[in-house]
Design a protein that fits this description.
Strands 1-2-3 form a three-stranded parallel sheet. Strands 4-5 form a two-stranded parallel ribbon. It starts with 5 loop residues before the first strand and ends with a helix. Strand 1, helix 1 and strand 2 form a beta-alpha-beta unit. The protein is mainly alpha-helical and 329 residues long. It folds into two domains: 211 residues, Rossmann fold (3-Layer(aba) Sandwich), CATH 3.40.50.620; 88 residues, Orthogonal Bundle (Tyrosyl-Transfer RNA Synthetase). It has 13 helices and five strands. Bound molecules: adenosine-5'-diphosphate and sodium ion (NA). Adenosine-5'-diphosphate binds next to helix 1. Keywords: Aminoacyl-tRNA synthetase, ATP-binding, Ligase, Nucleotide-binding, Protein biosynthesis, Signal.
Length: 329
């Protein structure tokens, strides 16, 4: 039996929005609080982010920003291992070994490859094709048993399960079969187009609320959020815009959607948006203040990352040294 270990990664793509916060990061903090030391590993996956073109200075800043955000949201480097992927060389080394037991065909079938490569017909890089192998290496390097990811990553965890099985068939029972840990939070939708999810890649900044938005911006974004022509606040699946706003309110306050609708039955949608904006501001203000403070503390962030990398490397080296022996290196 393999001891419990949780691994998850997040790309350093700028300040997280409330979808990332509610759907991923707060869930990570919950898992951290429910776990023992060294059981929970969070990785800022900078090597994944260069599968798309990046400005070096921007990437560097994004890494600092992401760490600042994770710390501000409650990831505690005393309880979890928090580190930067490229600081632990065994990720790339194990990815090579795993790539040699993974077929082109298996990778070509992955839905995310199909959609991402279709968008970039010209000059799509090898890294974009093989990045699910690197993700498998991220997970297996720590013999992780549980992987909290969003639905868009489920196929990649299934690939990891397959690769672990192929490796184990060749070399003996070495890797656990990692399981997906689902988040219970409903997907946060775009404020401009509530039929699609809130996303960093959306070109409109009005579509998402970022953790460092000012009070004014948060009010403005809710005011401009797309709803419909019905003034009452009701939790109706056909009313995508209002339902999304109620879900956001509910996720931040813990009040159920039904109770919310009852509480605000005398308000119009426009008035209700102000209530939600205030609730979001109240919850995010301490997080935002802490992010802003940590953004000025580059040396502290570097120390945290160094400590995290040292702890991650200890585990990674042990796994990879065993892999080398098994493979015959
Ligand atoms: P984005 O689409 O904004 O680039 P990522 O793909 O980097 O987000 O996702 C990072 C994490 O945040 C993943 O665990 C993902 O499932 C979660 N996540 C992203 N967008 C949302 C959303 N709108 N609602 C809930 N969770 C989300
Ligand atoms: Na994404």
């Amino acid at each position: 039996a393999f001891p419990k270990r949780i691994f998850s990664g997040i790309q350093p793509t700028g300040i997280p929005h409330i979808g990332n916060y509610l759907g991923a990061v707060t869930n990570w903090v919950r898992l951290q609080e429910a776990s023992q030391q060294d059981e929970v590993i969070f990785c800022v996956v900078d090597m994944h982010s260069i599968t798309l073109p990046q400005d070096p200075q921007q990437l560097k800043n994004n890494i600092y920003d992401m760490v600042a955000c994770l710390l501000a949201c409650g990831i505690d480097p005393k309880k979890s291992i928090l580190f930067q992927q490229s600081a632990v060389q065994q990720h790339a080394e194990l990815a090579w070994v795993l790539g040699c037991i993974t077929t082109m065909k298996r990778l070509g079938h992955l839905p995310q490859w199909k959609t991402k490569s279709a968008k970039r017909r010209e000059g799509v890089c090898v890294g974009l094709y093989t990045y699910p192998v690197l993700m498998s290496a991220d997970i297996l390097l720590y013999k992780a048993t549980h992987v909290p990811v969003g639905d868009d990553q489920i196929q990649h965890v299934e690939l990891t399960q397959d690769i672990a099985r192929v490796f184990n068939n060749l070399y003996g029972n070495f890797f656990p079969r990692p399981q997906v840990l689902f988040s219970e939070v409903k997907k946060v939708k775009s404020l401009r187009d509530p039929s699609s999810k809130m996303s960093k890649s959306d070109s409109s900044h009005l579509s998402r609320i970022e953790l460092t938005d000012t009070d004014k911006e948060i009010h403005m974004k809710f005011r401009k959020a797309v709803t419909d022509f019905t003034s009452a606040v009701t939790y109706d699946p056909d009313r995508l815009g209002v339902t999304n706003i109620i879900n956001i309110h509910s996720a931040f306050t813990g009040i159920t959607p039904d109770k919310i609708c009852d509480d605000v039955k005398n308000l119009t949608t426009a008035e209700y948006k102000k209530v939600v904006a205030d609730a979001v501001i109240e919850n995010l203000t301490p997080v935002r203040d802490e992010i802003t403070r940590l953004q000025q503390e580059k040396h502290y962030i570097e120390d945290i990352l160094k400590l995290g990398a040292d702890r991650a490397r200890t585990i990674a080296m042990e796994t990879y040294n065993d892999v080398k022996k098994l493979v015959g290196f």
